Amino acid sequence: MTTSNPFFEPSELPYGLPPFARIRTEHFRPAFARGMAEQLDEVAAIGACAEPATFENTVEALERSGAVLGRVCRVFFNKVATDTDEEIQAIEVEIAPRLAAHDDALLLDSALFARLDALFERRAQLGCDAEQLRLLERHHTSRVRAGARLAPEQQRRLRELNAAIAARSTEFGQNLRAATAAAALVLDSAEELAGLPADQVAAAAANARALGHEGKFVLPLKNFSQQTELAALDDPALRARLLAASLGRGADTNGPVAVALAALRAERAALLGYPSHAAWEVADRTAGTTGAVEDLLGRLVAPATANAAREGAALAEAAGVPEVGAADWQYYSERVRKERFAVDASVLRPYLELEAVLHDGVFHAAGLVYGITFTARPDLVSYHPDARVWEVHDADGSPLGLYIGDFHARESKRGGAWMDALVPQSRLLGDKPVVVNNLNVAKSPAGEPVLLTWSEVHTLFHEFGHALHGLFSDVRYPLLSGARVPRDFVEFPSQVNEVWADWPEVLAHYARHHVTGEPMPPELPARLREAETFGAGFRMVEHQAAAVLDWAWHSLAHGDAPDAGGAAAFEAAALERYGLAVAAIPPRYRTGYFSHVFAGGYAAGYYGYRWAEVLDADTVRWFRENGRTIRESGEIFRRELLSRGNSVDPLDAFRAVVGREPELAPLLARHGLDG
Known about the structure:
single chain, about 675 residues, mainly alpha, Glutathione S-transferase Yfyf (Class Pi), Chain A, domain 2, Neurolysin, domain 3, 4 domains, 5-stranded mixed beta sheet, about 5% strand, globular
């Protein structure tokens, strides 16, 4: 084990791709143990260095530390998300608090902090370049924010809190995985699924077979509230069952966990000198202050709810009822789109086949805008048979990195869509990037095409925007690499990339009927864009409701959290207080399944999607109106922003592209909220 553990030495595969064919579950525990021990020794050596602190012997040495731990963490947590099992979950429960303690040991090491503090005080005299100064500032700031200046007794309590937060976050995620699986609807006949396209009925049958329900049909839950099948299912009782299953999952198990996490985070914030966890988080983000976040959220509530009310009235008229409830909203929205805009989601899907969208859409757009190309590498073994590998080359033919696409749902995979870096880019370490995109698209039966919804097409383009952020990274130091930017900025590049999904030249290239090869009828894209405006009020309200719910939980002062059983009442009061208690529009995520903030890195940060969309909408306007070709604009966006990671202030990178401060008007216009 000691000599054969694949994490103990750098991978010899192209681009440092982890040697997945050799990695076994039994390798993780010893790799974590050695990785943490080695990094602690490395940091101790830095702190004990007899020579005066220099950038090279302190900051750069810190960047080189933890190689084994980095390799095992990236592979293990990718497996936790994509292909877990009981043994992996047991290791996760065991290792999460140990990793939290390890992080504390690094961040609170007094000898290391003394050297960093001394360097920071005389940073103007060090002769460092801009990226080195940025790196020094990031290391210093992260330690101050983590409690390096606290007294020993305060640090002891801080370590306890961090371990408890890590354990509770893991508990939340594992509870949610179990609750989501248990809440899937098992149906006896295809007739119950009337209204669903045939390929989705076939996928439900395949899901049932995979789960041991031969002859039945299973609708698994997506990670958000409004399940996509609600737009098509004809049976109102089944729609109500499906939405109830979605909204109710995790309430009993995760409500108390969410309360505990909010209380722990509030206590930690108070210990660090902040009035709330939200105040602590936002102080190191581009928003800067809680007031800035609350101002943005508040400005969008009135136009969003007014627009949603107009949409609701149109739906009620179409349904012939006084008002339309939450379970029926998407169903009647589709009816209105068909009647008003002649857009039928079921008619669109045959033109949106996964492989065509990927190769002729996503990859084609990347070539059009940035000049890069993709070559399949079936010879490279990934972490799961569904996960495929492509080699990426730059416009001049030089190697750029590897892209892994893992697009299908499975029982061992968590819900949602995301990007990860298995190898972050770093010129210091000589590493080129290896990035992963995950979606949760249902598999079709063998030999059948996988047809996407329009929303899933946008999700694929969105996540690929994150991948580009990682692939285009061109920085020296790992800490500043790729998408390691502030939480309220990280969604900006990915949201910009969504524009190419319906850019006329790109859409015409991929939107072809999967049987006949005929292009999507030319009138459909225009009608589709018009129809997208209808529903903007609903989308804005459900997203705003989730954002303020996250914000309310994490704006609590120490001692103000509700009791363990009070999550539902707290949620209801928060939505009422912010003017977003709209019965027909549940939050995109409710507390019990809000894994972004209770099991992920988005605590007090879900507003970041909207904050980043201000920048995104403004940048898309710049792409459309700056007078340059798409390729010229792409080069500017890549050079000034995508390649820079966190090596510059993110808003400075935005200004370098657009040439001014961001404006709100393009966002309002995008959602039809400017009238």
